[in-house]
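Exercise 7. Predict the structure of Ribulose-phosphate 3-epimerase from Prosthecobacter fusiformis.
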Amino acid sequence: MTHDTPLILPSLLAADWSKVAAEVKRAEEVGVQWLHLDVMDGAFVDNISFGPQMVQTVRKCTDMYLDVHLMIHRPDHFLERFLHAGADNITIHVEARYDTSVIETLRRIRAAGKHAGIALHPDTPFEAAIPYAHEIDLLLVMTVVPGFGGQPFMEKQTMPKLAAARDYRDAHGLKYHLEVDGGIYTNTAPIAKANGANLFVCGTSFYGPADTPQAMAELTACVA
Ligand SMILES: O=C(CO)[C@@H](O)[C@H](O)COP(=O)(O)O
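Solution. The predicted structure, encoded as tokens:
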């Protein structure tokens, strides 16, 4: 799949965790290819979600591509656990603390045969990702302050950065996907697409509506 292919990625954070397997199937049944899993440690972000055990649980339920977003400090310390749990892509934050380094962590992910991503907090400029641009498969531009679902899309703070990430990629012959996460609905996803995004993480907009086929159809259509 190239960086021109638009995909809707439901975020499991917004699902009903009392029936995780059914919520995973709910996504699979409407044609989702990539599922997004938000790992939060209560230190890097002001919330705690789940860890590798949930990733492993989801892995047992599906063959969908698992896109794991680590909102944690010391992602390098925990890396092997997420790799073994069945992650297909692991995205780490440039702003996190590392025992080793961002670059070494990205290389370890790729050496394990998986895809590697970098994430940027809304306050972090695109320039912070440039040293890693040749080492990533995906750049995640957070469109809300990481930690919680249901927040409004930060258009002014994040769209120029997204466009800069697209322009840099295209000018340097790179291939990384551009992912947006937070406040993505049918009215905001097209704005992100116009600025270069092809991966759209949808929490509330996917798992909120009772009519999942309709939600998926509308989200897919608005970025087609
Ligand atoms: O990573 C995060 C929040 O930190 C996101 O994945 C949210 O889960 C997106 O939720 P919505 O804004 O789509 O409700």
